[in-house]
Design a protein that fits this description.
This protein is an all-alpha fold. It has 2 domains: 12-61; 63-99. Helix content is 69%, strand content 0%. It has helices spanning 14-25, 31-37, 42-56, 64-97. The longest helix is centred in the C-terminal third of the chain and has 34 residues, at 64-97. The radius of gyration is 23 Å and the shape is elongated. It starts with 13 loop residues before the first helix and ends with a helix.
């Protein structure tokens, strides 16, 4: 395992992912074959198939839109926590200045 180089992180379009999932679903090719044909990792293709099943309602889990919403809410929550921290520091600073 020490000889393997890490793959650079790549991003794929929704259409490409959907096409890969469809190839696996039609039973034309296995997940491993699709991964090999498109120079992908089997894990990535399996994850895409799993997410497609969740989005279709065939499996339990967060749908893609729910995942996007959750990520947006977490970003907003992090920003709001930073805002509160800044306001607390400003309040402490001005309270010390008025004494």
């Amino acid at each position: 395992m020490g000889n393997r180089k890490a793959r650079p992180r790549r991003s794929f379009t929704a259409e490409f992912k959907a096409e890969s999932v469809e190839l696996c679903r039609r039973d034309d090719r296995s997940v491993g074959q699709v991964a090999k044909d498109f120079d992908l990792t089997e894990t990535a293709v399996r994850d895409w198939v799993k997410q497609a099943e969740i989005d279709a309602g065939a499996r339990n889990g967060l749908t893609s839109s729910e995942r996007e919403e959750l990520a947006a809410l977490r970003r907003e929550n992090r920003r709001l926590r930073q805002d509160v921290d800044i306001l607390k520091r400003a309040t402490a600073f001005f309270a010390a200045e008025t004494r």
